[in-house]
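Hi support team,

I've been running sequence recovery on a batch of backbones for a student project. Most finish fine, but this one hangs at about 90% for roughly twenty minutes before it completes. I'm not sure whether the input is malformed or the queue is just slow. I've pasted the structure tokens below so you can try to reproduce it. Let me know if you need the job ID as well.

Thanks,
M.K.
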């Protein structure tokens, strides 16, 4: 909330300047809806966001493909990084939340979600790409739907359809008198809002991160190239802030991937152990 409020304040403060000062081009919502440049008019048309997504998918496959091809009994640095990421998703997320014995069937999906979201998020700080592949709602929705399917599958597999639905909307030990109040709340919370909140949390963080970085770079460009006299020195300040935000966005990209995978594991665990 603080991050979003600060972003809104910064954009509103600079919006008037954008129309009055030549050379300053602030970020806008149009950044997230670029025009298509290939296969226009077909189901496979590509715009900049789709291209970034394809690039990051290729980067993910190449990263672990190289790691697998070079795998040795005594791992090198690159193999250590690959194994560290895989072990983190398996041990620190899946097994830690679901339990070592029960986590095994769900490790692949949790690992895929963690690494997929991580690589899609990181594109926001890669020069030349400069926008997170998860900053448009389509990709967060896909991951949220996958997480939801995994959660529902785990519940149905362990308790059957009836047992899963009952456990999702009616916690154990609730007096019958409270059922009319509890059931609608639990239904909305557990079966409707979970994918919605997963989607919005990821999307909002990636959108705000892009706008903050773009705002800093736009200000740097203006101060260095268009400002007069001593005002050019402000470019050093805005550029330094941009570097700090790059490091911060790297942290946020990893954190959001962790949170998304962690919540997926929590939802799976709750559907397995529902009473």
């Amino acid at each position: 909330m603080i991050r979003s409020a600060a972003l809104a304040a910064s954009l509103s403060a600079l919006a008037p300047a954008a129309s009055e000062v030549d050379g300053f081009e602030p970020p806008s919502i149009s950044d997230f809806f670029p025009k298509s440049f290939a296969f226009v008019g077909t189901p496979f048309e590509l715009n900049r966001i789709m291209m970034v997504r394809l690039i990051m998918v290729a980067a993910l496959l190449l990263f672990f493909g190289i790691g697998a091809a070079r795998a040795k009994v005594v791992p090198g640095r690159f193999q250590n990084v690959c194994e560290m990421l895989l072990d983190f998703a398996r041990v620190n997320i899946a097994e830690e939340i679901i339990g070592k014995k029960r986590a095994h069937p769900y490790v692949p999906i949790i690992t895929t979600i963690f690494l997929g979201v991580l690589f899609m998020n990181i594109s926001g700080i890669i020069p030349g790409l400069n926008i997170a592949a998860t900053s448009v709602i389509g990709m967060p929705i896909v991951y949220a739907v996958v997480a939801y399917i995994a959660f529902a599958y785990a519940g149905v597999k362990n308790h059957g359809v009836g047992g899963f639905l009952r456990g999702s909307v009616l916690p154990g030990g609730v007096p019958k008198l409270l059922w009319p109040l509890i059931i609608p709340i639990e239904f909305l919370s557990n079966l409707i809002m979970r994918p919605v909140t997963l989607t919005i949390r990821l999307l909002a963080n990636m959108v705000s991160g892009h706008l903050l970085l773009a705002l800093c770079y736009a200000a740097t460009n203006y101060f260095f190239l268009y400002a007069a006299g001593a005002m050019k020195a402000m470019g050093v300040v805005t550029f330094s802030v941009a570097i700090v935000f790059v490091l911060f966005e790297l942290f946020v990209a990893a954190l959001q991937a962790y949170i998304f995978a962690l919540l997926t594991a929590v939802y799976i665990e709750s559907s397995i152990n529902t009473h």
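--
Follow-up from support: It reproduced on our side and the slowdown came from queue contention, not your input. The chain has one domain: 75-273. No action needed from you.
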